[in-house]
Design a protein that fits this description.
With about 425 residues, the protein is of the alpha/beta class. It has 15 helices and 19 strands. The chain has a seven-stranded mixed beta sheet with strand order 15-14-13-18-19-16-17, with no helix packed on it. Strands 2-1-3-10-4-11 form a six-stranded mixed beta sheet, sandwiched between helices. A three-stranded antiparallel beta sheet has the order 8-5-9. α1 crosses α12, α3 packs antiparallel against α13 and α6 packs antiparallel against α11. The longest helix is centred in the middle third of the chain and has 17 residues.
Amino acid sequence: MFKIKLLPLFLGALTLGIGAVSATADEIADFYKGKRMKVIIGSGPGGGYDTYARLVGRHIGRHIPGNPTFIAQNMNGAGSIVATNFVTNVAPQDGSIIAGLQREIALVQLMGVKQAKYKAEQIQWLGSLAKEAGVCAVAKHSGITKFEDAYQKEYALGGTGKNATEFWPALFNNLVVTKFKLIRGYPGTPQIHLAIQRKELDGVCQSWASFKEIAGSYLPKMVPLVQVSLQPDPEMKKLGVPMLEELLTKDNLAKGQNVDDVRTFFKLTMVPGIMGRPFAMAPGVPKARVQAIRQAFVAMVKDPVFLKDAKRVRREIELVTGEEIQKLVNDIAKVPKSKLAALQGHFKFKGKVEKVVLPIVVDKGKVTKTKRGGRRITIKTNDGKKRTAKVSGKKTKVTIGGKKAKRKAIKKGMNCVFHYYGHKTRAKKIICD
């Protein structure tokens, strides 16, 4: 189901801004005409953030004056801190770059994470395509049937960095009496799900939308334990998954904690869920260009071609405007520093921690399909399995006939060898005959 909500706040701002934007419409069109813009994606390939960002890159240009084209570039690291630092401090601040960031990126800076070299309130937020309910779930093979089981026995969850995959397990162990074990070092949630299916992990915490999409046919073998959200998700409610608030009672809190503080800490982490899949521009981008992109963002989500593509990649669309996100960030900034400092301390995982070193998988077969200029390559292996690799223009080494080549040079019918972390992950190298 696709939902588009335009709040009165946004409508009023749009009405007030029409004169200013129309006065510079020709200048904006002149700037963007023939421009090749970038979507910097603060996550690895294959996950939900990557899918949403590439969806925007394929469609928003039609709604920007001058109709620029877009290319996508993944810049993974530290839960989007690396990408945000780059966009706000290094990249041109002329309006030629959009950032698709992880939803916690404002909260971590406001809590004082040292690596964050930006001010969340100064970032110019464009909007989001989703409001996200969170979930913590485990595989049935773990033996856990309800959240309370984690009070008694250790279960291993996978982590990808400073985001929900590691924040929520930390808060549960530190504030509630769970015994989760954290396995860090996964490049993305697709790799976590593969590890769960191989019985190397028990579960994961992430957004519900991405969880059910990545789990795919394995979903019936998973047990959603708790909704980490301010509002019930209709699907999880139907499945009988309890809300977090129902589980936060004085009887199951860690020593020294009280119910009111614990609920406040969790609510702070759930606010980013309303931000969902946020997109932003740097603080120095001219206001008129930001407003033009915001309007393009709104127009895009009403475009039938865009909605058809969103359905194709199985992504639900629920618009959150740039103005709404800006207000959310400003509200978080008003939370007492003492509470934010305490929350930062609770994000330090207390419990057993390991770091995974993923093995490189080697698959060989004949190319059956190439997509988007070689960005996706599918082979059929000798045992008849289809395997797809994501191909980065900078991070994937491609050789054909022993010579270095561009990814677009890979053609259907070639025999190729993938060196990657597994199906649907980014290849380290591809060697073709």
